[in-house]
Structure formats: C-alpha cells, structure tokens
Amino acid sequence: MAERRWHFIPETAALCWIFLAVGAVLLVSSILSLTGTDSRAPVLTVIAAVAAVALVVMSVIGLARPKLRGR
Predict the structure, then answer these.
(1) How many helices, marked H, and strands, marked E, lie in the chain?
(2) pTM
(3) Would you say 63 and 5 are in contact if contact means Cβ atoms under 8 Å apart?
(4) 70: left (phi over 0), alpha (psi -120 to 50) or beta
(5) Residues 6 or more apart from 51 whose CB is under 8 A from it?
(6) For residue 17, is pLDDT > 90?
(7) Of the candidates 11, 12, 18, 25, which lies 20 to 30 Å from 66 by C-alpha distance?
(8) What is the distance in angstroms between the CA of the first residue and the CA of the last residue of the chain?
(9) In 3D, which of 24, 21, 27 has the Cα closest to residue 50?
(10) With contact defined as beta carbons under 8 Å apart, do 16 and 69 qualify?
(11) Residue 68: what pLDDT?
C-alpha cells in the first residue's frame, strides 16, 4: 500500500502568497471581532484566529524555505 503523507506547506510561491493574504485577512477580522465584544470571547472566533496564525506561519515558512514546499 502506498504511503500517504499530509502536505502542510503550499506547493508553489503563488499559493504561499494567497495563504498569507487569506490568513492576514482572517486574523485581522478575528482581532476586530474579539476587541468589539464586551462579554466572553466567542469560541469560533478564537478558533478562526488560531487557524489564521497557522496559515500565516505555514505560508511564511513556504516563502522563506522553498525546499520545504509541498512537504
């Protein structure tokens, strides 16, 4: 049986830039939503913020280290 691996870093530089833009927009949106609430932080907004940080980190790694793309 062929071994299947999950690929976390985008395969091309263009995808890295797209992931970076989407992550930045999602992070800014989450931060604005979290600062606008007076009560407890909504769980989905916190999850979206964590996912946005993960997208930004993966795209920066892909842009900084081209050998890791698609791995």
Answers:
(1) 2, 0
(2) 0.81
(3) no
(4) left
(5) 26
(6) yes
(7) 25
(8) 20
(9) 27
(10) yes
(11) 80
